[in-house]
């Protein structure tokens, strides 16, 4: 799918640029006024970030904190990070190296930065698709640039990927849904003709040919982050962005045969992008789905086309949060209840709704489950509960407030209680525990890259540090993030910013890990910047829906 951006395309993006130069941040414009909508917007937006904001951070204590980046406008994409200039603290020596490495990964399209490549690893003989801009990989890079007051690259990325969405997408003779966003894209430079072309992969070239369900969700989440960070509502308001959101959500909100509000997925359709038994209703996608729905709700115009979606989103959110909080949640009590379940119950009064056979509870779980703490398990479907821990889904559940404040606290408790297993020597495990032997053969199809405690199968991924840090700040436990960042700082630069680490404790640089993996670099920078200035949290966090909100409790271990 090659895509030459002709004059039309350029004209269109030029008109967006002029729109974004407007300084009008009036929220009511986005809401088209009607009072009822304002109320709804309020209840879903994260106005009360001040609930978790810190005192003593340079007078940025207002409720709309996080909307205005330090520096604000255009900044050169080379040179000193604004964060070190703006704060009086002494940055860790590896921060400078990280910024340099991040800027080296920039990809330009017609002279303008458009994204960052997945890995800048010249030593590796096999490039595969690591020289592409992945949508999910770009998110931490985008957040780093936003936090550093460089929003232009993010805007450019959002607009160009939107154009890619508009392409007719075909795999063999089958046409993909209109709303599908690419997993990745590449810029091809033709120096003779002087044109840049884009080549996008919607899953048809990906290993396993899976369409990335997460790309569209990340796109919506990033659009909101951009809007919160810059205060520039005009981008989200454009008919193009509104349509882009509607197309993404149309793929998920259409009626089918489902009896659950969760989204049915193929294996490998998210960050874990190869066969790992993450199919059906994986937490990794459900949490992102929930977050994307909430972000879309806060940005969707209440016009003729938008209104219908707003209704659908609100209804789905209601059902989804109930389902996830009730059936995916596992703590000591719940485990004990499942352990005692009766099976073969018929009718709507069944306690064991999904007919889970207690014998299917894996042995490791009985020891792993602390008395205090809990988490959203990997998957729930008929007679199948995947009890594995998945980091991304649980962190996103906290950030999106899919988890109640009590559940969020319990997830952080679990991380503290099971530090060795989930964090070890390198934060943090993508999932826990690893699958081995016969199970590995059946579940992964004998995947040599996903052997036990490696890569997606219990490997440790530094990129997840930004999600952990954000969740720590949101739950009032910054000391957990500090501890994790300390661990990462001991190794990351020395090891050349690997993609992942292997082993039960995450002690070894991953078997096939790329070096200078961009999201490892950006993830670290975002974690650092958020800890320095927690008001950045507002970009990627949503407060509990006020209608259901119990008071946010601060943990006793809060140290700030
Ligand atoms: C691997 C990861 C995937 C990532 C890609 C590029 O395939 O599994 O999540 O997007 O590399 O870094």
Automatic annotation (TrEMBL):
<keyword id="KW-0119">Carbohydrate metabolism</keyword>
<dbReference type="InterPro" id="IPR008928">
    <property type="entry name" value="6-hairpin_glycosidase_sf"/>
</dbReference>
<dbReference type="InterPro" id="IPR024746">
    <property type="entry name" value="Glyco_hydro_100"/>
</dbReference>
<dbReference type="InterPro" id="IPR012341">
    <property type="entry name" value="6hp_glycosidase-like_sf"/>
</dbReference>
<dbReference type="GO" id="GO:0004575">
    <property type="term" value="F:sucrose alpha-glucosidase activity"/>
</dbReference>
<dbReference type="Pfam" id="PF12899">
    <property type="entry name" value="Glyco_hydro_100"/>
</dbReference>
<comment type="function">
    <text>Invertase that cleaves sucrose into glucose and fructose.</text>
</comment>
<keyword id="KW-0326">Glycosidase</keyword>
<dbReference type="GO" id="GO:0010311">
    <property type="term" value="P:lateral root formation"/>
</dbReference>
<dbReference type="GO" id="GO:0080022">
    <property type="term" value="P:primary root development"/>
</dbReference>
<dbReference type="GO" id="GO:0009555">
    <property type="term" value="P:pollen development"/>
</dbReference>
<dbReference type="GO" id="GO:0005987">
    <property type="term" value="P:sucrose catabolic process"/>
</dbReference>
<dbReference type="GO" id="GO:0048510">
    <property type="term" value="P:regulation of timing of transition from vegetative to reproductive phase"/>
</dbReference>
<dbReference type="GO" id="GO:0033926">
    <property type="term" value="F:endo-alpha-N-acetylgalactosaminidase activity"/>
</dbReference>
<comment type="similarity">
    <text>Belongs to the glycosyl hydrolase 100 family.</text>
</comment>
<protein>
    <recommendedName>
        <fullName>Alkaline/neutral invertase</fullName>
        <ecNumber>3.2.1.26</ecNumber>
    </recommendedName>
</protein>
<keyword id="KW-0378">Hydrolase</keyword>
